[in-house]
Task: structure prediction
Amino acid sequence: MFNIIKENFSRAFFALLFSVITIATLSFLSFNTSYGLFLAGSFGATMVLIFGYPESPFAQPKNVFFGHLITSLVAILVLQFLPLDDFLQITIAVGFGIFFMILFGVTHPPAGGNPIVVILGASSYEFLLNPIIFGTLIIIFYAIILNRFILKKNYPVNWPK
Result:
């Protein structure tokens, strides 16, 4: 019992520490530079996976990057080309975002929320660059630093040792 608590404490501590560092970096870039927005609401849930459960297929870099990219792109395309009420756009974009993540083998559950944010915020293609592309690259960088180099885990799972 004590070993489980000790193991959970260690996992929780490093997830806390690196989530704070990662979100602090993204927040600093968003609010204290002129480079644009680096934060997306779904990135909070991404922290749970990549720092708490990095062995999960959903936490692998390709899933993080392409999951966020695909769902955001789908939402922007729906927003641009389907002039429907917001509730229909959100419904269609979330469904197709999930469809394409699964189809391409890059499922990242937190990214399923991106279409809601994109459509409610009437985001443009710029949203793909910032926060999605640059934000996820920073997240993946920190995930590799913690998991591979500090904790000595096989992360990403398919990388050679």
